[in-house]
Amino acid sequence: MPFPCVVEDPMQDASLLPREVRLGRALCLWLSLVLVLMPEAEGSSLNCHKTCICASNIVSCSKMNLTVVPTSLPLYTAVLDLSFNSITRLRAEWTTVKLLKLHNLLLSHNGMSFVSSEAFLYVSRLRYLDLSSNRLRLLDEFIFEPLGQLEVLLLYNNHISQIDRTAFSGLLSLQKLYLSQNQISRFPLELVKDKTRPEKLSLLDVSANRIKVMSIPDLQVLPAWIKNGLYFHSNPLGCDCTLYSLLVHWHIRKLNSALDFKDDYTCVLPGPQKMTVGAFELNGDYMNCSTYKEADEETYLDQMLVLNCDTRHRDMQKTWAMPGDVPVTPHNNGSAVVLADGSLRIGPVRAEDSGVYTCFAVSKALNETLYVMVKVHNFTLVGGGETLNTAYTTLVGCLSSVVLVLIYLYLTPCHCFCCPGHSKPQRHNEDSIHSSMLSATPTHDDPATKAGLSRHVAFIDSKELQGQNGKVNPNAQEEEEEERQALQGRGRRRRSDADSISSVFSDTPIVV
Fold it and tell me: 390-405 pLDDT, tens per residue?
């Protein structure tokens, strides 16, 4: 039989109720009181005297053996320290109210292995988030998207092996990201490459991971203020001369990433032994890489040239000096103009613009001086191209002439006496050269001989038949007669028609 906690008639005297009813009512009221005073199931209420330490807007709950985040956090909380506890999971409902003044959240050393993708919806104004030294393995997509004002994110010393490409989307104000001492095998190029990197990111630490390959050309074109804070030492990178050149260049520029950890940049030599050596030693016996040299800026006459003042820090005040330490001002040189981003534009380039240009960069923390060597070729780009084309055409013409001469000398058609089957020339079956050229009529009456002869086109130089006065050589008939008499024993010849001589001087080729 149930015992009601309240009587149906409040005017009824309680002493008149049965003893069982009075006992049941007392028990029910006691249970109700216990339930009211009992802590909530989700977590203990914040107690600034026992659970945490409250100092103004700072709430420190570090090293309190907490397994869940305390509830009923004050709305004025600006710094919340939950480090060195046992909070293994950060759920979406870890806070039920919006903490709009919270800008620092410390959750390091908790053994945390799970962070909900909605865990930061109520703390969207965070500027500093420390999730280091936990057991995180995966960074899910858009996990940090609500944190548009976050500036520093610490994720080092975890077990992170997978990072979704959209995990850091929305971090528009991110300046420093620490991902060292994890198990990352892919370099997050989207964090430093133009158009995809956070606009204000100046430090990215991916050291002591498992990265074997990096896109060196993409790193070479980065601004110096990004390379100054890009740390990737203590990774099993493959040894390569491009890696050596990159690091040596950074060291010459005194970039912090290469200067502070020079001895920690190592690589693995190719080969079965997989020997690990220092990356700065590749110019020795290991790979004999060439010594790095700064490249000069080269241009041509009448071109436009822009010189960048690639400083280690961002937003520095920059001034320029031309060759001869002449300061660049709006009035002293019309061809050199300092642009809004601090770069120097020169143009149209003249021959006297060659030389060393100096950029002076100044900020509150650093003064830096950069030198840029400019070499101007003494011709225009179009003119130079025409000169090269002319030289190429001349060379091709010369080679073609040589080839034609060689063909003429060594590859002319063979006469019949050198053909297979003709051991000796048979002059009695051939016409004399004069008769074959001066007559269009065959000189033999034998039909078989006529059929065997080929038809050729021949041109005769009229100089052979002319004397000094330009007339027909009068000795031509005598020479032909002498030739006829010399060949009497070999066959009879028939003189050519007189008209055939005049045909020599026509423009029409003679068919033989």
Answer: 566 777 788 888 888 8
